[in-house]
Each structure stands twice: as C-alpha cells, then as structure tokens.
C-alpha cells in the first residue's frame, strides 16, 4: 500500500508540473525562521487534500483547515484517525524533539507532502503561521480564489529567541468591542505573538465588569477620551476573549493600573478617595493626577476583590498591576503599596507584572518589570536587575505603537519621538538595558495607547508594519538581524495585508512588493 501511495503522489505532482510555479521563497517569512533551506520541488495543495491531525494535533489541524478553506474553496477534511498520517498530503504531528522547545516546530515540504512536527500544539500553531506565509498572498482572501496553491519544497527548523512576544491594547482611553479585539488577536497571531496585554483601566474608563464593585464598569466605564459612550466587557465577554486568544496560543494579561491612572475607579466609589469625595469622570488625556488612597484599609479590600475576580477569570499566569506615572503618590506611600499589591496578586495564585516604575519598590522574586522609558540606563531598574528581576522590553521610542511614524502621521503622539519602520527594527532587546543580562529579558511588547485611536483601522495603521517588526525581534535569532534583508521580507507582507483588508502604513523605507 505504501508504494501505491508514493506512486499516486508522484502522479499528482507530475500532473501539477505544467503549471508555472510561483511559490513564495522561504526568505520572505516574518519572523525569520532559525534555519531554513529550499529544495527544487513544489507541493501543490489539491482540491481533494486531507489534513492528518490526530490526538493533541487535532485542534491545530482544524484551525489550519479553517484558515485555508475560504480562499481555496476546498473541503480539507481533518483526519483524526492515527493510520491517516501516511496517506494525507498535510500531516501535523506531535513528536518529541529536544531542540524545539515549547513553541518550536519543524516543517518539511516535498512534492507530495507537507509534514509539520512539534513537541507541543503551540509549536504546531506557530508552524501553521509559517505555512500560511509560504502560500501565495491570495490564500488570505475571504472568498474563493483561483490558485494554484503551491508551496516551495524545503525544510524549516524554527524556535523563538524569547518566550514573551507581546502586544498591548489600551481599551481604557477608547473602548474596543470583543470583535475588534478578536480581529487584532488573529492579526498578531500571524507573527507568532503569544501575549495580549489588555490595559483594562485608566483615568478615562474601567472596562471589566467586577461583581463585587459593580459601579466600576457601569459608571466608571460609561465614557472615554473625548466624552464618547465608552463601554466595558461583561465577565462572559472577557472569558470569550480569553478563550479565543487561547485558541490562537495567546495568553491574555489583564492590567488594572494603580495607584495612579485610577480616576474612573475613584469617580465610581467615593470611599476609595482619601477625602471621601468622588471626583467627576474624566475624558481628557492628562496623566499623573489620580491616586488610590494608599493609607485606607478599604483600598486593599477593593484590590483583593478586584484581583480575586480577575484571577478567577484569567487562566494565564500574570496580572499586570500598572504602577506607572504615579506622580500623585509620594514614594513613601508608593513603595509599601506596591509591596502589598504584589502580595495580593500572589495570594490569588498569579505573578505580578508592572511598568518598570515599580522597581523603586521591593519586588518579589517572581515580579516582572515592563520597561517603557526612552533611555537604556535607569538606576532602580539596574538595582532590581542585580537582585534578579526579569524584564519585558517596551522602550517608548522604539516599541510604542502609538508614536507617529513621521510628523505627517495623522494619528498618535510624539512625546517619545517618531518611530519609522527602520527605527522599530534597529535595536537588540537582548542587549538594550544597561545592567540587565540577556537571560533576564523575557521578551518584547508593543503597547498601543489609544488616546488618538478610535477604530480598528486606526489600530491596524499604527500596529502594522511595526508590530510585525517587533515580533521578529522577539522570535528571530539575533544572527538573522539585518535591515537590508529584513525590509525585503517585510515588503512581502504588504500584499497579504491588502488581501486581508489590514490598513497598514506603507513606509517609504520598505520596498513593498
Ligand atoms: C505613557 S509610559 C503612558 C500612558 C500613555 C502613553 C501615551 C506609560 C507606562 N504610560 O499612560 O497613554 O504614555 O503615549
């Protein structure tokens, strides 16, 4: 039977031969794989193709079929029987490989088969993103396209440089509904981003239903920058986002910013204010004017309730406690506050992340700092690093997705500088922060603050291409870093974004295909 299968495969390849191959070169995949080699064969996905994916591989197999069906119009049944592996042209397999880690994968393409193997389903998922980019850009269309659906033969062995590759969306300054968040999740997953940090509260809005403190959402979430209606996620909607992200191997990190950036909470409950008076809701864009009352017991009861409910809704290991720009909280109040909040997070079984401002306080060994400043040297960060603190890097002048590309960019801010395509790429996260070893860098994150961002098309325009560039810095080995070759690879993403309807900034620095 095996011989017959091989012959069938060969015959199919011979029939496909007259069609001029226009397969995508391996060198156009973003992020760059750790290792890749091309062969002189071409695989053609035919209308009768089946996907073999059994056991732990089944859900990624179903996902692969779902992303390939619209443009191909093929049925692409997913074969979950174990014996199916050898006969189906596309095979997803869990197979132990010591060098690949949790997210690595191996992809082997020849004239008759595409075989994807990984230690874990997460690795298969990342391999599927590579496979999608090896198909013509029209594979991303939502309606049937002519094809042919060819993939260049070859082999890729790939695994990430950093375990944390993130995006952040500020849903507090402007609120974005569940569908917008899901669309963004799908767009970032293509670049092997594995974390979405949701900035759920700020001066202008509280965006998650909290059952023990209901006015946070119903009143605190009732407006946004500019005075619009705002909004909030019910707990069921938040769970839906978390589950959708998980199906894309993305961990949601919820952030409740504190002790500053808390006007929406302070406006909702008078007792959280030191003077017992609730301020009005705020719809401007200033920072640094609000603070929880760090000396009141009720503040810690409030935080225990809020963090407890969020921890119960969040399967991921992290809760982000903000901690930035607490200009209305003295250091004497700030330090014990951060100590207490870290303990509350730990009591609910989670690991705290905070903006690097928290390194002024004593940090638990597990607490992670997120670096946002614009210079690589910071005394309290260095001191924390000496004690072993790990960091996620989001330098505002390199990684902030709300910074303008040029003075002409219609959206965004420029307080940290302008970030053109080349600037977003030309730095090394492993060797950026003074006094922080590469082994203490968990990875990178691109925060998108939304004072000026109001709709999905705005999110896309600020995120792409820069988030794809940051994802490359997070995933690809340092040895692949080269702007000249990278800009050509990045250029190959342009036609894909067009087909997907993603509104991107066509930087003149990139030779768009
Ligand atoms: C700074 S840096 C902030 C945000 C603003 C952003 C605008 C930091 C952690 N916080 O509150 O939205 O700048 O670019």
TrEMBL record:
Residues 1-16 form the signal peptide. GO terms for molecular function: beta-N-acetylhexosaminidase activity. It catalyses: Hydrolysis of terminal non-reducing N-acetyl-D-hexosamine residues in N-acetyl-beta-D-hexosaminides. It is an enzyme of class 3 (hydrolase). Keywords: Glycosidase, Hydrolase, Signal. Residues 162-329, 335-477 form the Glycoside hydrolase family 20 catalytic domain. Pfam families: Glyco_hydro_20, Glyco_hydro_20b. Its EC number is 3.2.1.52. It comes from the Bacteria. GO terms for biological process: carbohydrate metabolic process; glycosaminoglycan metabolic process. The active site is at 325 (proton donor). One of its GO terms (cellular component) is membrane. The keyword Metal-binding does not apply. This is beta-N-acetylhexosaminidase. It comes from Kutzneria kofuensis.
């Amino acid at each position: 039977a095996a011989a017959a299968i091989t012959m069938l495969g060969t015959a199919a390849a011979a029939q496909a031969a007259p069609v001029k191959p226009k397969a995508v070169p391996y060198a156009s995949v973003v992020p760059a794989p750790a290792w890749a080699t091309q062969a002189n064969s071409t695989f053609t996905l035919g209308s009768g193709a089946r996907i073999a994916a059994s056991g732990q591989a089944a859900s990624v197999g179903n996902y692969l079929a779902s992303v390939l069906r619209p443009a191909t119009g093929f049925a692409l049944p997913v074969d979950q029987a174990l014996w199916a592996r050898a006969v189906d042209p596309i095979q997803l397999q869990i197979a132990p490989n010591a060098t690949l880690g949790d997210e690595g994968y191996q992809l082997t393409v020849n004239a008759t088969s595409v075989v994807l193997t990984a230690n874990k389903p997460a690795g298969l998922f990342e391999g599927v993103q590579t496979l999608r980019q090896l198909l013509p850009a029209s594979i991303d269309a939502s309606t049937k396209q002519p094809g042919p659906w060819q993939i260049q033969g070859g082999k890729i062995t790939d695994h990430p440089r950093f375990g944390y590759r993130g995006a952040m969306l500020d849903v507090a300054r402007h609120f974005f509904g569940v569908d917008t968040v899901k669309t963004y999740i799908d767009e970032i997953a293509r670049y092997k981003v594995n974390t979405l940090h949701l900035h759920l509260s700020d001066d202008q809005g509280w965006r998650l239903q909290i059952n023990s403190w209901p006015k946070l959402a119903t009143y605190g979430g009732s407006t946004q920058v500019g005075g619009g209606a705002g909004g909030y996620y019910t707990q069921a909607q938040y769970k839906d986002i978390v589950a959708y992200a998980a199906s894309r191997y993305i961990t949601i990190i919820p952030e409740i910013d504190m002790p500053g950036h808390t006007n929406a909470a302070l406006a909702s409950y008078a007792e959280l204010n030191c003077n017992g008076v609730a301020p009005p809701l705020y719809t401007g864009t200033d920072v640094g004017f609000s603070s929880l009352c760090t000396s009141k017991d009720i503040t810690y009861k409030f935080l225990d309730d809020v963090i407890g409910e969020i921890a119960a809704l969040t399967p991921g290991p992290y809760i982000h406690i903000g901690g930035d720009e607490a200009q209305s909280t003295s250091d004497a109040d700030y330090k014990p506050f951060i100590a207490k909040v870290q303990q509350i997070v730990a009591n609910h079984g989670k690991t705290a992340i905070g903006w690097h401002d928290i390194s002024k306080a004593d940090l638990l060994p597990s607490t992670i700092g997120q670096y946002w400043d614009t210079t690589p040297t910071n005394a309290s960060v260095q001191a924390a690093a000496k004690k072993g603190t790990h960091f996620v890097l989001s330098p505002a002048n390199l990684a902030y997705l709300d910074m303008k590309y040029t003075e002409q960019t219609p959206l965004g801010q420029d307080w940290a500088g302008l970030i053109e395509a080349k600037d977003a790429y030309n730095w090394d996260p492993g060797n950026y922060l003074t006094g922080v070893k590469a082994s203490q860098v968990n990875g990178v994150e691109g925060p998108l603050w939304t004072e000026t961002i109001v709709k999905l098309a705005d999110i896309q325009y600020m995120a792409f291409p820069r988030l794809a560039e940051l994802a490359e810095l997070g995933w690809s080995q340092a040895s692949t870093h080269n702007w000249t070759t990278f800009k050509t690879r990045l250029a190959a993403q342009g036609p894909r974004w067009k087909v997907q309807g993603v509104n991107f900034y066509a930087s003149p620095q990139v030779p768009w295909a």
